[in-house]
Amino acid sequence: MGFVDRTFKVGERGSTVGGEVLGGVTTFMALSYIIFVQPAMMHEAGIPIAGAFVATCVASAVACVLMGLLANYPIALAPAMGHNVYFTYGVVLGLGFSWQQGLTAVFIGGCLFVLLSFVGFRAKLMEFIPDSLKRGIAGGIGLLITFIGLQYAGIVVGSHATGITFGNIQAPQTLLALFGLALTLVLMAGRVRGEVLWGILGTAGVGLVFTLGGADLLDLEIKSYASLDPRGSLFALDFAGLFSAKGFVTVIVTFLFLDVFDTVGTLIGVSERAGLLDGTGRLPRARWALFSDACGTVIGALMGTSTVTSYIESAAGVQAGARTGLANLVTAAMFLLSILLYPILAIVATCHKYTDDGFSISQYPVLAPALIVVGSMMLKSMARLKWDDATEFLPAFLTVVLMPLAGSITEGIAFGFIAYSVLKLVTGRWRDAHWAFHLMSLALVLRYVFVPPVG
Hints:
Layout: H1 2-8, H2 17-31, H3 34-44, H4 49-71, E1 77-79, H5 83-92, H6 99-119, H7 121-128, H8 131-153, E2 156-159, E3 163-166, H9 172-189, H10 195-209, H11 239-244, H12 248-274, H13 286-303, E4 308-310, H14 314-320, H15 325-340, H16 342-348, E5 352-356, E6 359-363, H17 368-377, H18 390-406, H19 409-426, H20 435-450
Antiparallel strand pairs: 1-4, 2-3, 5-6
Helix pairs in contact: 2-14, 2-15, 3-4, 3-5, 4-13, 4-15, 6-12, 6-13, 8-12, 8-17, 8-18, 8-19, 9-10, 9-17, 10-17, 12-14, 18-19, 19-20
């Protein structure tokens, strides 16, 4: 254990090997839904479901290993929610690209991510972001996680009249989520180590007892390990088709934009919660963290899945005790093991789908309590905002509220950037931010003018 402790600086960061293992498992449990949702989403675009499933697990594992070894951070990576929606419904079904052309656009974007990581663009971008916006990003991500958790629990549902409304708490899956939330809160109040993970496992256990965890999850039709043949999507890129398609440049740039800002936002949010930022608000080894993210996207595209990025659910592992890259190696091992243990993991991330009042509702009652609790913990960063300075707290406020209400980390960051620059410029305090930050804000304005925003 001494070698492991020295390699990952476990003791130096106030953690233990046991805490790292617990944190890595907790992170995986919190984001395990992606190994079920992502293949289904990719299948909608035409990608063979078995290939998409294996691609999701392998690309995520490789990216997690790179993040753990190169950056030594407990920040897990997997195919991004929102990006997969854009890939399937925006690029393939909307614009008429083939899924092979879509994967090629993701691959090219990933290669650009790698280049930008090496030249330090994205790392510098993180340094240019003012402290108030970093705290706003962390808080906004926290509220977004909480909002997603409330939706997964069925506590908040869609409404034609008001957009969202209170759900049916008598529904079995909502009752299960409420039980899990109560259990997790009691464990937190009792200062039980690993309370989030124990909450997930306890909720899953109760769900099994009441047969709530046996649904045919998203009709993935993966019967056994032997049926998971990834060759249908492996190396299925189509450069000639992509370059002959109308609007391919816009598609590539959009993937680039989404990945840059979602990754930067997640790294800042989780790092703020884990205490990984240094005294100047910078993230050491940010270049390697971003490089790991970029490599995950390249590998994922080659294997048959959409953009891989850092995951906000990593905050669940941080809450459970993760502080180093060792936790990421545990998460990576769980991704690979999931290929063999798919039926068992389906119990944890079972999605119950139904329609209510014209809205298609997907619930993950076992995972919902963890997301609600973890999101609340990320709001601590807001306490350090300069509440007596409108040019500081108003942009942060816009960032915080837009992330959950727009359902997009990217749009929250964009509005925060633009508002910060505008307020500093009109008050004559433009020197409070680096000139490159104002240039980026201008680029975001132009993006709204020329490129329709996507979540």
